Amino acid sequence: MKTTDDIGFAKVDTDRLQRRGMPEVVFSPGKTTPQILGIMQSLIKAGQNVYATRATLKQYNELKNDLPELVFHETANAITMDITPLPEPSGLVTVVCAGTSDLPVAEEAALTAERLGAKVERVYDAGVAGLHRIIPHIELLRKSRAVIVVAGMEGALPSVVGGLIDRPIIAVPTSIGYGVSHNGMTALMAMLSSCVPGISVVNIDNGFGAGVSAAMINRTVNS
Amino acid sequence: MKTTDDIGFAKVDTDRLQRRGMPEVVFSPGKTTPQILGIMQSLIKAGQNVYATRATLKQYNELKNDLPELVFHETANAITMDITPLPEPSGLVTVVCAGTSDLPVAEEAALTAERLGAKVERVYDAGVAGLHRIIPHIELLRKSRAVIVVAGMEGALPSVVGGLIDRPIIAVPTSIGYGVSHNGMTALMAMLSSCVPGISVVNIDNGFGAGVSAAMINRTVNS
Amino acid sequence: MKTTDDIGFAKVDTDRLQRRGMPEVVFSPGKTTPQILGIMQSLIKAGQNVYATRATLKQYNELKNDLPELVFHETANAITMDITPLPEPSGLVTVVCAGTSDLPVAEEAALTAERLGAKVERVYDAGVAGLHRIIPHIELLRKSRAVIVVAGMEGALPSVVGGLIDRPIIAVPTSIGYGVSHNGMTALMAMLSSCVPGISVVNIDNGFGAGVSAAMINRTVNS
Amino acid sequence: MKTTDDIGFAKVDTDRLQRRGMPEVVFSPGKTTPQILGIMQSLIKAGQNVYATRATLKQYNELKNDLPELVFHETANAITMDITPLPEPSGLVTVVCAGTSDLPVAEEAALTAERLGAKVERVYDAGVAGLHRIIPHIELLRKSRAVIVVAGMEGALPSVVGGLIDRPIIAVPTSIGYGVSHNGMTALMAMLSSCVPGISVVNIDNGFGAGVSAAMINRTVNS
Amino acid sequence: MKTTDDIGFAKVDTDRLQRRGMPEVVFSPGKTTPQILGIMQSLIKAGQNVYATRATLKQYNELKNDLPELVFHETANAITMDITPLPEPSGLVTVVCAGTSDLPVAEEAALTAERLGAKVERVYDAGVAGLHRIIPHIELLRKSRAVIVVAGMEGALPSVVGGLIDRPIIAVPTSIGYGVSHNGMTALMAMLSSCVPGISVVNIDNGFGAGVSAAMINRTVNS
Amino acid sequence: MKTTDDIGFAKVDTDRLQRRGMPEVVFSPGKTTPQILGIMQSLIKAGQNVYATRATLKQYNELKNDLPELVFHETANAITMDITPLPEPSGLVTVVCAGTSDLPVAEEAALTAERLGAKVERVYDAGVAGLHRIIPHIELLRKSRAVIVVAGMEGALPSVVGGLIDRPIIAVPTSIGYGVSHNGMTALMAMLSSCVPGISVVNIDNGFGAGVSAAMINRTVNS
Amino acid sequence: MKTTDDIGFAKVDTDRLQRRGMPEVVFSPGKTTPQILGIMQSLIKAGQNVYATRATLKQYNELKNDLPELVFHETANAITMDITPLPEPSGLVTVVCAGTSDLPVAEEAALTAERLGAKVERVYDAGVAGLHRIIPHIELLRKSRAVIVVAGMEGALPSVVGGLIDRPIIAVPTSIGYGVSHNGMTALMAMLSSCVPGISVVNIDNGFGAGVSAAMINRTVNS
Amino acid sequence: MKTTDDIGFAKVDTDRLQRRGMPEVVFSPGKTTPQILGIMQSLIKAGQNVYATRATLKQYNELKNDLPELVFHETANAITMDITPLPEPSGLVTVVCAGTSDLPVAEEAALTAERLGAKVERVYDAGVAGLHRIIPHIELLRKSRAVIVVAGMEGALPSVVGGLIDRPIIAVPTSIGYGVSHNGMTALMAMLSSCVPGISVVNIDNGFGAGVSAAMINRTVNS
User: Fold this and answer.
1) Which terminus of chain C, N or C, has fewer Cβ atoms within 10 Å?
2) Considering the domain D90-222, what is its CATH architecture?
3) Domain locations in chain A?
């Protein structure tokens, strides 16, 4: 059985849906628009849904000529096109976000988890400097199957949230900050050094990875 | 209601069991034996189970004089004493380990997850250089609710395991290696850079944190 | 006028009291006991108080032979001997500390501020994972002239405290932690990256420097 | 009582004035002009003064269309608009600066301290290579309640100033330099390593944070 | 005998062919088009083949005016012009590549090895997340005299390939990735930390160096 | 067919000889003497030669009690015991070494290559500061199938040797040096940055890996 | 006596000529053209020669409008205008350079030393990979009072030159290279780690500083 | 003519005296006492003076048995034995030192320069925090042919000294400090970033290298 589609410059892994529980996702940076188009067409041919992350409006506008049904998600910087219906939302993943500038990463995480079948709630702009903004959401957090916490700068928010709940936290450091923020390295190191157990961490700005992890946790309920 | 026990040098957080779903755990390094003893006695007084990580045989032998019921877990370097019965093992967490030297971290993860109610399976000595050792365990991995992958040196094992399954992976880099292994930093960076989504990472040698995350995922099934 | 006392291996800066508002303080590491003794005797000869930081019990026991009036401060790892009375305590400096292992740094800060004339309050074992432990102290913090916050690991405590008060905070990262804590670098970088303004930071484990800064702030009230 | 104004993409913390002693300040980088405008309008609606840091002339010109009363501070790269009168200048904060290229950071610090009620004096272009330029200002420095020292490259100026006075110093490393200056990291590390106690440090180029710290120190006099 | 051609700004090492077994190769970045042209003309005058790496289409178009026989290799970003016939392809070097974005580095390696006399086979898009794509090529890999493995992100591919064969592997980390990939440093460190012996590593994105090493190995057979 | 020998704490990969062309080698650091003994006995039971690297004289003396035929190689810090005869030496690998302190790494490389069938020549104490010491050996270097160059400090030797010959060079940085040598990182980075193509690099102090790579190159001649 | 000229944004240190033996030099990056013009005019007013480093052709063309006698040095990226005659060239400083791309730094060093009274010889394009290019110049190097060696990438050239002569070497790392060259850090670290004593090092690309150091050495002869 | 003495483990470079103007010097760390003894005996046999740096009292006591005329220099941690008379002291090198803990490095520099023929003056304990201690020595500094400045922590002293004189400065960072001093890296980076030209830098704690550079400068006067 043929499970990869060889399109010259790339073998599209159309079998991934079965092996990994989700279709191949296009990471847009560093790919030309024709390369992205080729991969998208392979997926469509295989009857699989299209999801491209870190896409620009410009790329979307170019791709739309050939694939007019593509949808652009502005804050999440994502392009999607659903050949088959998405899974029915179930369970609960909550995405907590520290600041306006972290929104694109948070939305990428939320969109990813939703596309993989999770019901997603968003708690945005809940920074460490304003703890009073988190308190009202404790009940929501405590009933989530997984909580994604997105933060840049000193990356303290996952520790604060983690101290309040007993649910698995996926922490996402963002590259927001300047000077010793070091493009997210300080937030990453701080999250990994957290004195609160139950927090695991993904790469800087990796909202997609956090969304996948959270969705995988969210659906263990049926396994 | 009094929820912390002030013993002079530390306030033992005896309320943590309710707030966080597990009692306070003693991180032994940098604490004197009398300090550890004091915290243990506070926990016992509160009717909570004792669990000290990164303990040495020497510390155990000293503590045993006052608390003869303490148990030492040799590979995991842990001390325990259970006042109340542990939760019945349920679900499934699998711990995969790359080499002999990584065993203490793997065992700390396994013991932690077990103490928090998870049924735990161990797949040890499954290095990247011997992929044929992982293949026989794929079915076990695919039915686990969470998989902990422990590896030092180049930290490639989580990527390899992650490419084969659709379950959430908690990757634990270890400080095993020399030269550019940089005491686990290279394994950590590699795991965070993994091309496989669904992997989240904890601090170097943090088997305890991985065990907590996996156990939290494991019990979401009942939420 | 002679303002330095040349004792062969070092010129003791006995004029510092006037120029800088405090006598020279002995940083003990890397000095031999005879060297420390020589500096202490120079200070005593000049009628100035003796204060040696990062001293060991062993050094104290050796020095006591020649200077039996020396006092050892166990948690702060300091040696003192007061020729002239210390300034009357005034104002208010509060030292907040995140964990048992951070106590030596916190005590060095507190002792230093006290010796420079500050009334000092201590709020210890107030970690990020237990915010409920800080809340009862907010009024104390809000009426302090300066607040010293000592924390290792992810170094999040200054941000949390800073979000609650409008007083200047001196943050002290400690070398407590493992793995990516990098001997305090992560806490340091996190504190410098704080999203809360009004926090300034000193070197890792530099309780002495924090105490001096806080005491200088504390006495501006009379200037 | 409603204390945050939810404007879709951000909750403006209009209550901060009471809790923290100053209104929310807009950090402009990474925000779109409409986002900045929205936050400004929320603040104005709440009767609070507007202060945006690290703004560009281009942003100012765009914002002026909607808010023609905005003022642009060219060297400080700041935008302000004062709904209520600023506090009467009191006390004394002195800003010392090492070179022409450090002026924007120094001016941001000075403007911030002024807006928070401090009388501010400026001693600019006082580099280490020209110590004779600092000497004439010693009396001014010695009567300041707090001194902000701004320097790039080797960051030696705070040590030199600190050796001459007994007032709290807030050191601000700047990203000025090349090669091993590492965008301010060397100046930062040098300032933190200073052999002179009483110096605390803020993030690279963080003139705003230094201004807030100094202003908080400056007003303790009334507490 | 004159073996360097002095063209004002550079001495072209036309003797290198004998000493090092290959003519001087032009590294294009940081050189102006006239500088590249001058070096090329020196080589042609000496009867040696022209090979410029990391060239852009723009540079090629400019150079073509003076040297219309130049050939542009699009994926490899190389310019060539062969005055004398290339050596007959012999032996076997296989280039394995992990992802679409790594193709330019892989092609530079392949082209270089070919120009130095190696028969080259390409196995592209064989990532760690899809091990099933490598398995079909094991026989090819096992009969190669040297294998070049190109990978970015976590750089795990050389370890995986190395575990399967007994041939020397030249690993090439690429700058593909984001966040903690650190422009290829993580892949580089991981490759150097590999638990599989027989892997040696070249600089990030250094396809040229890998091609030279592999070609040198490939022709030892005749020595 | 059984190809791993499970001895409780480790599965000895006795099949490696066929798959990888050499038996499993014991990396001694971090293993207890009983663990090393167990692995050695498994190898002996499988009729394979024993080779333990980075062993100490103390470990050797302990192991000798159970395996009196073990041989200790003092400079190379290795233990061997040959059940079957080693391959006949063939081809030529030359090991070049920069200083007395680098000898253990050089000898580990030489011994490893010899055990894998290479004829090995040694050119020791040939530092960059004494180029006149290398010149007499150029002919030897030029007829080697692979050259291993071992150097610490600034790591310049591989560039110098590489400029003189057209054979593949495996460069081994050592941890010899102080200050900015950074335990071998500077030598490693310098070797990877070499302006001479045809040099590939292994981990710091990894004489074993260099020996394996060189031996693999050395025997391609028969493939 | 007035020794600084206050021009609003900068105090030009016109007294430096006497104190430091050379007039103030303008470091152009980060300064606006009007700022550079202002400083130049202050120097001219004080009868001192103008020397601006790291200037662009664009800056030169703008400045020429007001100061038509300015001279642009293309390779050195410098602007000069000599009000008083330069010192008569004396002594001997030799500048050795490794590659075409390092020329701007080498020329800045040479021009600086010349302007400070040194006779300067240039040995360019003398890379480590072509040692035969250095040998012919040994006599020149041995009679120089100071030798400046400029190199990027692995920075090995100073070690090689240093091993041949007994004159003080000022090594200048350049930012030429890619990947682990880390913008000159590897060359810098390698030069500082050199096994050859008598080499001291300046900041990356700091041809100016090297020229000053060499010229200061060159003129000690008259002291 | 035989110019190296092959003693089995090392070729002693007895020709270095002519080529480099000084005999080979023994760097003691990492060498066994018999190795050091062997090198010393080779030098003595060749009629050359013995100089071993970074030696311990223990090594000296062991070596004295075979070479009773050896002299131990306690602060400089050096061993010497002079077969031929040292050169007559001439010229002037001044060594400036910032603190008691930096003395061993300063003394190594001073002793080295003296052995290579320089008259040496010492200005010790002249820290940045006590500028008044440097001022009295300005005339001495201004008439030195070279000035060596030794400093740890923030490494600011060379900038301060450099701003006062027009003589070449060799700056030596020391590993004295804690936390972000990073074992001398911060002092090193700060010295390289100095805003004062005419300062060149050697490796951390490299008093020997600084002494050689200064002595080479000191004797150019006769060239």
Assistant:
1) N
2) 3-Layer(aba) Sandwich (3.40)
3) 4-81, 90-222
